[in-house]
Every structure is written in C-alpha cells, then in structure tokens.
Amino acid sequence: MNGRIMASIAAAIFVFLGLNLYLGWNGHLFWETAFPSVRAGWFWAVYWIFALSYLAAALLRNFLPYRAGAVLKVIGSYGLGLLFYSLILIPLADIAAWVMRLSGVEREQSILISGWTVVALLALVFLIGSYNAWNTVIRSYELVVPKSAGDGRRELRIAVASDLHLGAVVGKKQLARLADSMDELKPDLILLAGDVLDDSIEPFIKENMADVMQRLKAPLGVFACLGNHEYIGGHVGEYIKRMQAIGIEVLTDKVVEIGSSFYVAGRKDRAEEHSPQGGRLSVEQLLDEADRTKPVILLDHQPYGLAAASAAGVDLMLSGHTHRGQMAPAHLVTRKLFELDWGYLRKGAMHVIVSSGYGLWGPPVRLGSRSEIIDIKLKFA
Fold first, then answer.
1. Which of 100, 117, 273, 291 could cross-link to 105 by cystine, CB 3.0-4.6 Å?
2. Which residue blocks in the chain are alpha helix, DSSP H?
3. Is the pLDDT of residue 1 over 60?
C-alpha cells in the first residue's frame, strides 16, 4: 500500500473521529441536561461503541473471531446510520437552540427542546427506514423487444435481484425470503445483477448461505454478474466456484445463448478497469460473436455506458449498485452521478432498468428507497 493511499485512509479516519467528537459533545450536553443524576461516562461508553464498531470490524477483521467481528459490524452499521442522520439534524438543532436563546429561552430549556426533537426524529427515521429495508416490494415491468426470439418464444418472465450484500447484516433469513418471493413469481429466468456479497466471503461460507441460495431455481437458469463488492473481499475466484457448485453461473465478460432463443451477457464489474489484471471487454467486444438479430439481455452492475450498450444492440440492460442513495437525501447525489440511478429508461431501442437493490450496505435503514425485486414480462415481436 503506497504512501498516498495510507495518507488518504489516515485523513478519512481523522475526519470520521472529528465528526464523532462534535456529535458526541452535543449528545453529552443533552445527556447532562436531561439526565443529571446519571453519570456522563455511561453516555460516552455507549456512544463510542456505536461510533467505532464498524471501523473496528473493518480494521480488525483478520484478527477477531468471526462471531465477534460480525457483532461489531452489526452494531457499527446502526452507528453509521446514527452518524449520517445526526450530521443532518444536530447542526440544525444547534441553530434552533441558538435562536431560542436569542429569543429569551433559558439555555437548559433550549437544549432539552432541541435534543428531544432530534431523538424523536432519529427514532422516526429508524422506524420507517427499518420497515423499508426489511419489507420487500415487487416492481413489475411489461416490455416489448422488437425482435423475434428463436424456438417460437413469444414471452419471457424474468425475476431480477441486485445488491443482496450477504454478510453480517443481511443473512440467511432475508435470503430465504428472497428465495420464497422468487418461487412465488415462477420466472422463466432469474438474474442477479451484482453485489451478491457484502464484501468478505466468510459469512457466506460460515453461515452456509449456499444452502439457501441454491433454492433459486428457474427453467432457463440462474445467472449473475460481478459487482464491486465481490472485488472488495478479494475472493472473486472462490465466489464464482461456490456459485457454480449450486447451479448459478457468474458471467464474467461472457455471453450465453439460452435455448437458441436469446442471449444473456454479463460484464465484469467496472472495478475491474482499475485492476492490475487489465480491465474488461467493451459491450461491443463482448457481443462480437452474438447474433444480434436475436434479443440480447445485458447484466452490468454499475449503470454506466448506456449509450454504448444501446449502440451495441443490447435490448434490455439490468443494473443495480446505486441503492437509489439508500438513505435520503443521498438520492440527490446518485441522481447527479448516474444517467439513471433508479427505475426505467428507454435509451434508443434499449430498455434500461436500475434496481434500488434487495439488500443494503451499512445501516439497515432505507429512507426514500425500498428493498425490491424486479419482475419483468418481456414480449418479443
């Protein structure tokens, strides 16, 4: 690891700790005012457990027992959610308290009013956000591709899930719910648009998640592409082998023809472009040997290069990655970063669908987005 990367990590940790000190100081003032008979040390102990657990789980991953690391990550995930929304609410509360004091309200009263308001809003955010995170919706699309599929096929039903992020937070229970939902949809084809893993493959192995994952079945097969989080864990090869063993093919710059009817293509993730191994194929190169008079479905985790995919003859592009920001107002950022950060877009003759994802990264909270499964009824000319 070079000096520039080390300096960047150190700077990020410094900023992280600085922000937590600011939030903790505000929490300390509120605690002393609201609970004067309870020692402030209890507040700081609980606060730093939530604030530092995610960082500790990441830095000590290779040294901690598996269960201890998983517990730290879960606690830290909630801590990240508290950090995110506290950084929005507490500065506003500080301003409100200052205005109240200018208008004659006593200092202690201003702290209590602003503090309890922040507590109530954080509780509301986590209640709504938890519901959105764990209660999945089915989003349905009926699309027409102006091409003839082989074997006289007129229709195709596809179930799509992206961003499962299987790990310490999203585990076997939620994966079983996905399998149940897919089974109810009775699709012809199941597609997983990347980030099946959260980062490390260890929870997938330790919790025997493959036993549940292999319940994903469809007559025409189950296919996946890589996401950036598979690369973070550094076990891409092992992940592909374990998926293959349960009947799920991970398409890494590969095209498969399904029953001489249509093609499913899967790209390596965009993260591959920065790897020492030398990048990934363009969509044009990927489809070089495909008969593009037949329908082409493309799995590409990160929704970039829509125009290039359309020009290459792709009929349906499926992506995830964005989570639609996961926690509002982060969706305002993803909206600026991507041509399409969620939902449906027609790009030339190509249909594009970007999912907000089934699982989640970090905090088990969704605000302004939902856990979703995509149900597509594709009709051919």
1. 100
2. 3-34, 40-59, 66-102, 107-134, 172-185, 202-206, 210-213, 228-233, 236-245, 283-286, 306-311, 331-337
3. no
Q: How far apart are CA 44 and CA 59, in angstroms?
A: 22
Which CB contacts under 8 angstroms, 24+ apart, belong to 122-130? Answer: 122/82, 122/85, 122/86, 122/89, 125/81, 125/85, 125/365, 125/367, 126/81, 126/365, 128/367, 129/81, 129/327, 129/363, 129/364, 129/365, 129/366, 129/367, 130/364, 130/365
Q: What's the rounded Cα separation, in Å, for the pair 368 and 327?
A: 6
- Phi, psi values for residue 134, rounded to 5°: -105, -5
Cα distance between residue 301 and residue 317, in whole Å? 10
pTM: 0.93
With 0-12 / 13-18 / 19 or more C-beta atoms within 10 angstroms meaning exposed / middle / buried, residue 140 is exposed
Given pLDDT bands bounded at 50, 70 and 90, which one contains residue 278? low
Amino acid at 192: L
Q: Determine phi and psi for 39, rounding to 5 degrees.
A: -60, 140
**9 has a pLDDT exceeding 90:** no
What are 109's two structure tokens? 């009263």
Task: Report d(CA 372, CA 354) in Å as an integer.
Answer: 11
Q: What is the pLDDT of residues 59-83, one digit of tens each?
A: 898 899 999 999 999 999 999 999 9
User: Could you give the CA distance from residue 17 to residue 168 in angstroms, rounded to a whole number?
Assistant: 24
Q: What is the pLDDT of residues 150-206, one digit of tens each?
A: 888 999 999 999 999 999 999 999 999 999 999 999 999 999 999 999 989 999 999
Asked whether residue 277 carries a pLDDT value surpassing 70, the answer given is no
